[in-house]
Amino acid sequence: MTQKNVLLTGIKPTGQPHLGNYFGAIEPALKRADGNRDNFFFIANYHALNTIDSAEELKKLTHIIAATWIASGLDPSKCHFYKQSDIPQIFELETILNATVPKGWMNKAHAYKAAVDKNRADKKDIDSDVNMGLYNYPILMASDILIFNANKIPVGKDQIQHVEIARDIAMRFNSKYSTTSLTLPEYIVEKDIQEIPGIDGRKMSKSYGNVIPLYGTEEDWFNSIRRIVTDSEANHTIETFKATTFYGIYHHIATEEESQKLCESMVGHNIGWKEAKEDLMEKMIKRFKEPSSVYLDLLHDTNHIDSILDEGAKKILPIAKETLGKVKKSVGVI
Ligand code: ADP
Ligand code: TRP
Fold this sequence. Notes:
Layout: E1 7-11, H1 19-33, E2 39-43, H2 45-48, H3 55-71, E3 80-83, H4 89-98, H5 103-107, H6 110-121, H7 132-135, H8 137-146, E4 152-154, H9 160-176, E5 186-188, H10 218-225, H11 238-242, H12 245-253, H13 256-267, H14 273-300, H15 302-331
Parallel strand pairs: 1-2, 2-3, 4-5
Helix pairs in contact: 3-14, 4-8, 4-15, 8-9, 10-14
């Protein structure tokens, strides 16, 4: 029997979504999901606890991520849309899995390793500022995936290792308890997606403060776009122009034809950076103004967002209970 595809992905509510998140994660995941009802999209609010320590901020960011998914085209009546904290079985499963996961696997997980490397470089204790949430992060992420028997996990390149660990955890559990309770997940990474540069030329990331916000007001966009680094190179060739930070951002939003036209205008000195930025602003408006108004409307009625998420969780609790039931039986607690 071939197994049906169950696609699942989550986003942490740790900051305002930006263009990098949209083109690198949100849009491709929604495209993959098209037409199939077995899709799970969730807000990983327990994962966010590792970095967000204000209750008010976490609530606000949870609404922001929910509104972002919906404004981006997610239809809650056609998929499973929920927040992690409403599925308590995830955390019970995590406790059971904790007993089967070798500590060495966590030592090698990249987020923990990066924190250790940074502490070493800063001549601090290697575990300085590392909480157990960060250390156990891959086990919680495995539980998110395994509780719903998901087998296709669309993620960015940085999350491949976590999905591989989830697969290893499932295999180890199944073999240890001679069961097939846990479905083996695999990651999906879109080949064509490049890293989108931020306005300072480094990877666009909320941790660098170099983002163009995805949804918001024209003023929000304008304030970021005007700060995109530009050079004073007077004689760009098509190649050198294509290598600029500006083009790195622009070509994701514009069509191929529009991008080609901009290259020619810049190389031919028909326009300068000012006009190029105005052009980008126009493209942002054309592409994101309408979803931005959906987004802003949703955020005015957070009770409505909460009820969508509550409903979403209720529908899938039976699946989570069934998986947890099998796992509990396998280990001998029921
Ligand atoms: P950030 O770097 O802003 O903290 P996250 O680590 O929360 O972003 O990433 C959430 C998702 O968005 C991941 O799947 C990641 O691969 C994707 N993503 C983040 N930044 C970019 C970018 N600059 N270009 C492409 N994809 C990105
Ligand atoms: N760790 C993912 C990120 O940082 C978010 C996430 C949490 C996730 N649980 C997941 C993604 C399960 C896919 C599946 O982007």
